[in-house]
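Researcher: For the record, we're logging two predictions in this thread. I'll number them. Prediction 1 follows.
Model: Prediction 1, sequence and structure:
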Amino acid sequence: MSELFARGDTIAAIATAVVPQQGSVGIVRVSGTEALSLAKQLFRAPGRQVWESHRILYGTVRHPQTQTLVDEALLLLMLAPRSFTREDVVEFHCHGGIMAVQRVLQLCLENGARLAQPGEFTLRAFLNGRIDLTQAESVADLVGAKSEAAAQSALAGLQGRLAAPIRQLRDRCLDSLAEIEARVDFEEDLPPLDEGAIATEIDRVLVEIDRIEATASQGELLRTGLKVAIVGRPNVGKSSLLNAWSRSDRAIVTDLPGTTRDVVESQLVVGGIPVQVLDTAGIRETVDRVERIGVERSRTAAQQADLVLFVVDATTGWTPDDDRIYQQVCHRPVVAIANKMDLVETLPQLPISEPAIATAASQNQGIEALEAAILERVNANRLQAANLDFSINQRQAAALTRAKVALQQVRQTIDESLPLDFWTIDLRGAIRALGEITGEEITESVLDRIFSRFCIGK
């Protein structure tokens, strides 16, 4: 990808979702040295409109040879370096839908532009120094955010709140390295190295790395969400619980056992965390071939879930069938639910360690208590992510771990009183690892892996 960028060519892509009969505006984005001249070939601006940076022109997009009208549109001009990519950028704001933007994009490609690769606009912004690598990754996180808390965390990264402390840690390591190397090269001209001060500084950097590293699982929870499976015997109220929780009629509810034949999904947000809820078929032995497939899918969903909501019918209490199902899911984190509490006076005793949450799904009762139990059941440290200034992703966490291991090795080298040359080897390794996070030190293969996950227009 970065080899293509090195040629300095002009790229184009549709920057908005292409959905038939939806969306009033579709945008075709063009970036590169020929973006402005390409716009002048395709766009006709009537009257005395001025073609200058950060102006919006009104006009039409026409075929440059035949002058055939393609669309009535607006043209946004953002000339270098005052653009997202720090190149000349133009955007054709066309009518929404499918055909208008596709036709305008095709004209751009026929007249000198190349179709952008996934994430190539953001890659150019990074390579041109417009943003660092943490900000680039935050762009993707913001686009894919599934909750307000996830979006807020991505915005914090986009504003540089992660890059700033990482750069500070790297600078502190560089300062320590400079002190050590100065003694290696000019030992006779400088006072002795304060080894205690270097060791103390490395310890402080390690503490800061631990603090940042602790946000990894929290950030992952915000980005990917929590997968929750509702399991239990047939007709215990699993579908009613999903409908009450999601405030919709996602699942069919009847008095007949076995109504749910497949896994029904619903997307919710609990405590700022995206939650994918899976309503599963009632687990029981059956000769019905279709229901048997649904039961097997229920078992699979329960095995793959981060959390299992185990539903018991409060009117019948605990049964041997409940016990058999519970034995299949008890190795997963479980929240027990006694449903249909509107039909009984007391909460039934369940022979399991988890306290039961009382619900009456058909009456929309007990949902708040259920959500509170879910937040309590999931590891509390992970749930602090909703209040984070920033959070790191898996790639950044792996680089931080390498930096941490290298600095721990430096401390061991100091404690063992090894020569200063040995100190510098691992200290350089820590500096490289920290530089990988923000992009000061990065390989082309890592860039390709990061930006290939972006959408084409970003």
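Researcher: Logged. Prediction 2.
Model: Prediction 2, sequence and structure:
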Amino acid sequence: MGVALLSGKRSKDPGTQVGACIVTEDKKIVGVGYNGLPLGCNDDELPWDREGDFLETKYPYVCHAELNAILNSTKSLKGCTLYVALFPCNECAKAIIQSGIKEIVFLSEKYSGTPTDIASKKMLDMSGVKYRKLKTNRKTIVLNFDE
């Protein structure tokens, strides 16, 4: 989960920085991603707003962390576990299911009970993808670049 959180810091989204990390059954990292624009799209030329006319918001342009981690993967994801900061939306759930990922470990259920959350859980349950909230005693990870 630490790698997922750290990758989320790369996002240019001023409101939501989500990261994802995919690992094999033997805990080898095979994919990492964060929410951001597709390759070749300039972060300064497309909007990051959350409200307003649809085409003037971030929503039609941003790729979620889960999808980026899947697209950035280095091998087959069958049987892998996805660690992600925020419970996946219904669109990401489709990609997770299709990729063969078998478990999701998440930190936040910020959108619990919303239509996208309900649809996501419905598809994950139907397809047998397990999901669980991370339980840990560790509350912080500190990175220090001073020598």
